[in-house]
Amino acid sequence: MVSLGVGVGLTSLPPRLRTAHAFNPEAGLSETSRLAPGSEIETNKLLRDKPAVFAADFTGLDGSAGGVIAEFGGLGLGAYCGFRANGDFVVRCGSGAALPNDNAAYFVVSDRGVSGDGTLVVCFDIGVMTKVRAYWNGRLVGEGAAINGQTFWAGTDKGIYLGAGRFGTIAGEFVSGPVLYDTASDVRHYANATVPV
């Protein structure tokens, strides 16, 4: 099941109602930068006040025991993509405080659909309706929206991609380290971009 975060209200979306046909969410986007696995980035150097898309290719992705894929910002404002200790896949942005939260866009996927070999694409949209979406191998796996719009998708604390050393700054997303995987590409960053719905 997928839990869609819409402020304090959660709804479920059965897997059969997700995007039925695969497509390339990166098509037509212009790459802004790349970040290698294990790297940190000064989040304040990113266009946090504009929508952003991040994409990476994996083999052997296994979030069944938890693990972070990427984290930006912190408790005040933060963005997180990864797995909770129980294996649930989470993507969120906006408020880094505990969920549910009217100032955070988020969703939680509990059916283990994001695993194995594939391409993960995550989209953070900000503004009057702050939203998050994620695609695995070109299929929508979840989306969520905040009741209150946000002006930034993350705060200024350093970001990290598949690295160790700073986890749990976003409430409720504490994990012991990066997610398990066999291989991972650099994460591709598309600034001021979004994936067409």
What can be said about this structure in brief?
With 197 residues, the protein is mainly β. It has no helices and 15 strands.
How are the strands ordered across the major sheet? 2-1-9-8-7-6-13-4
Low-confidence stretches: 1-19
Which shape, going by the Cα principal axes? Answer: globular
Q: What is the number of E strands? A: 15
Question: If you average the pLDDT, what whole number results?
Answer: 83
Instruction: Sketch the topology as an H/E string, one letter per element.
Output: EEEEEEEEEEEEEEE
CATH architectural name = Sandwich
CATH topology: Jelly Rolls
Q: What's the alpha carbon Rg, rounded to whole Å?
A: 15 Å
Largest sheet features: 8 strands, antiparallel
Question: Total number of helical segments?
Answer: 0
Our count of domains comes out at 1
Which bin fits the share of residues in helices?
under 10%
Q: Which CATH C-level class is it?
A: Mainly Beta
- End-to-end distance, in Å? 21 Å
The structure class reads mainly beta
How much of the residues is beta strand, in percent?
35-45%
